[in-house]
Amino acid sequence: MYRYLTLLRFTEKGLKTVKRSTARAAAFRAAAAKAGVKVDAQYWTAGAYDGVVILSSKSEDRIFQCLAALAAAGNVRTETLRAMDGKEFKSIAK
After folding, report:
1. How many domains does the chain have?
2. Spatial contact of 89 and 27, defined as CB atoms under 8 Å apart
3. What is the CATH number of the domain that holds 80?
């Protein structure tokens, strides 16, 4: 299972319609599920980033397709990190 943590920053467009952010998030969750990607967590944050989404799937391609569609909508800019649990990291660190 692949897991990615994506940091989000609102674009100017996203800030103008920030009141619709939760509705857009629900639509993203639905589209991701349809594509075979699970939204493990989604939070709005205060600080350098406006939000974070944690995604998992058996397919990295599907995760990147979802993130590309999210970015293409123009409401957020993304910064994505590959996330590993302890077992996965231990296997890599051998």
Report:
1. 1
2. no
3. 3.30.70.920
